[in-house]
Design brief:
Shape: globular
Largest sheet: 7 strands, mixed
Number of strands: 11
Helix content: under 10%
Structural class: mainly beta
Distance between the termini: 40 Å
Number of helices: 0
Radius of gyration: 13 Å
Order of helices and strands: EEEEEEEEEEE
């Protein structure tokens, strides 16, 4: 089994920054991609960003230019640098891991970390 442990959430004022981290541990045989989803109150869970092994990245339109995803393959860790935060970024952020293609739902999910942006 694989465990994903997130850290770095919290409360920040609009315009501020936060950095999320997520480390995968356990019986990891392969990792194709890691990334982040988020779910705001009353809304569906949505992809924020992901990064595959080769380094290619995907971002939601709403975060392009503000968020940056990066990955340390040696540490099985993914980061999400969030700048110029807005109130609409308030959500629970979930770390995810794909062992294979990103065209199917993630194989593993973290417990989630709350990000609250005050206006």
């Amino acid at each position: 089994q694989v465990q994903l442990v997130e850290s770095g959430g919290g409360l920040v004022q609009a315009g501020g920054s936060l950095r999320l981290s997520c480390t995968a541990s356990g019986r990891i045989f392969s990792i194709n991609a890691m990334g982040w989803y988020r779910q705001a109150p009353g809304k569906q869970r949505e992809l924020v960003a992901n990064i595959i092994s080769g380094g290619s990245t995907t971002y939601a339109d709403s975060v392009k230019g503000r968020f940056t995803i990066s990955r340390d393959n040696a540490k099985n860790t993914v980061y999400l640098q969030m700048n110029s935060l807005k109130s609409e970024d308030t959500a629970v952020y979930y770390c995810i891991l794909h062992t294979r293609t990103t065209r199917i739902p993630p194989d593993y999910w973290g417990q989630g970390t709350q990000v609250t942006v005050s206006s």
